[in-house]
């Protein structure tokens, strides 16, 4: 794989040279290749065994301020040159856009950084099948109320990314990703519920065991059986850590350049203002070793950097690609393609595990699942279907379902009471459970 990455670097360099020979003012080329194995089984029987070896090249080039783009999955020399020529021809007919073009040369990545992202696995299909079967069987063995299954799925892939542009950038790095998931169905009388569990890591050795994933899936499913509805009213609400990062996802959308220059964000004038409680700082760290969202340059070759996105509750920066930055008269922040590992730092807050967070909640709603897309990033209005548990005096009493929670994101984020230390590391936002002071809950 690493030898192939070197060959692809040469192909990217040749594509850029060919674009220049055609008369392109500037160009960028990106190639991603992955290979690996995916296996799924259900009720003890193998459903799929898939081997993947995929690759794709994308090129964007400019004639002045006219842009042309093209892509191909054929990485032969002739196909790449044909793709470059297609992009060049397209650029003849597109409209001029003064904000289009490569990111500024002064922002380009220069040096390689080893983030320890590459840990391929040599598992055989037989070993992968055994993992999925053990995982699913563990779910059935955990509780007799587990009556059916949507199956278990295991994936192990590795590959590389190569990026180059006419500023002289040519960068590449390999990475790997492994995951295991299980979804099962439980029954109690006439009630049926489905839930799941999963684990993901750059390293096979850091995945939870198949037995633990299966047990967790069973426990999550059984805990939801015989759910009740709640009466409508306002109450404290706690988002469990595995869904809490979604709140920050809406915040990310609101401070991203695309929504800002289109005037479609509820945080249009929020820069350098209080958007979270003053005890909260959000640190972005793209350089976490083995991090799932680690990268030392973004999709445009702009170097990433460690920075405070929010400091003592005050918003410090927008999230900008080069195009959005030019639209707003600003500078790219290295966020073309997304964020890079957010850590939540809490000043003057005592450590709080999940049980301590329940005690802080007292009496209210613990949300463990969200449904629907009822979030308006323009106004901040928030309304989503939910399920979870009713909590009294810091103790879970019974599951609840068929409810809706509603509020406004601006108020919700500023009225966060506490964030737990029960951090979910399976994504780009390292968040524990989040306790909100009050939300409107609509039930029966």
UniProtKB/TrEMBL annotation:
SUPFAM superfamilies: Putative modulator of DNA gyrase, PmbA/TldD
Cellular component terms per the entry's GO annotation: cytosol
PANTHER family: METALLOPROTEASE PMBA
Domain Metalloprotease TldD/E N-terminal, chain residue ranges per copy: 27-91
Domain of life: Bacteria
Pfam families cross-referenced by the UniProt entry: PmbA_TldD_1st, PmbA_TldD_2nd, PmbA_TldD_3rd
Record-stated family: Belongs to the peptidase U62 family.
The name this protein goes by in its record: Metalloprotease PmbA
Domain Metalloprotease TldD/E C-terminal: 232-443
Keyword Transmembrane helix: no
Keyword set includes Hydrolase: yes
GO function term, MF aspect, one: metallopeptidase activity
């Amino acid at each position: 794989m690493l030898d192939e990455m070197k060959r692809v670097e040469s192909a990217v360099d040749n594509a850029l040279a060919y674009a220049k020979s055609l008369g392109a003012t500037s160009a960028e080329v990106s190639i991603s290749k992955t290979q690996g194995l995916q296996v799924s089984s259900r009720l003890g029987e193998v459903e799929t065994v898939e081997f993947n070896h995929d690759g794709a090249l994308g090129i964007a080039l400019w004639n002045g301020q006219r842009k042309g783009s093209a892509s191909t999955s054929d990485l032969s020399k002739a196909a790449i040159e044909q793709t470059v020529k297609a992009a060049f021809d397209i650029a003849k007919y597109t409209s001029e856009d003064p904000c289009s073009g490569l990111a500024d040369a002064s922002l380009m990545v220069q040096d390689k950084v080893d983030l320890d992202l590459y840990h391929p696995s040599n598992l055989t299909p037989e070993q992968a099948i055994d993992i999925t079967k053990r995982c699913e069987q563990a779910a059935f063995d955990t509780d007799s109320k587990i009556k059916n299954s949507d199956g278990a799925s295991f994936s192990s892939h590795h590959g590389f990314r190569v990026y180059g542009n006419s500023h002289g950038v040519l960068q590449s790095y390999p990475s790997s990703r492994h995951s295991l998931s299980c979804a099962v169905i439980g029954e109690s009388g006439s009630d049926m519920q489905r839930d799941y569990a999963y684990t993901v890591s750059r390293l096979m050795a850091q995945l939870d065991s198949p037995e633990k994933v299966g047990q967790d899936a069973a426990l999550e499913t059984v805990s939801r059986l015989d759910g009740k509805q709640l009466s409508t009213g306002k109450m404290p609400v706690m988002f469990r850590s595995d869904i809490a990062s979604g709140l920050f996802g809406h915040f990310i959308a609101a401070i991203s350049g695309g929504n800002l220059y289109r005037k479609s964000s509820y945080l249009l004038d929020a820069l350098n203002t209080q958007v979270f409680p003053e005890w909260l700082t959000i640190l972005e760290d793209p350089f976490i070793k083995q991090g799932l969202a680690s990268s030392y340059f973004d999709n445009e070759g702009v170097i990433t950097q460690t920075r405070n996105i929010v400091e003592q509750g005050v918003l410090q920066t927008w999230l900008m690609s080069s195009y959005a930055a030019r639209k707003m008269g600003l500078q790219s922040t290295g966020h073309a393609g997304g964020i890079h590992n957010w850590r939540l730092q809490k000043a003057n807050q005592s450590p709080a595990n999940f049980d301590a967070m329940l005690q802080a909640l007292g009496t209210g709603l613990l949300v463990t699942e969200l449904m629907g897309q009822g979030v308006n990033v323009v106004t901040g209005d928030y309304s989503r279907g939910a399920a979870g548990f009713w909590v009294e005096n810091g103790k879970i009493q019974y599951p609840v379902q068929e409810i809706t929670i509603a509020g406004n994101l601006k108020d919700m984020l500023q009225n966060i009471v506490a964030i737990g230390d029960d951090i979910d590391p399976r994504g780009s936002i390292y968040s524990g459970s989040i306790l909100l002071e009050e939300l409107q809950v609509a039930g029966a």
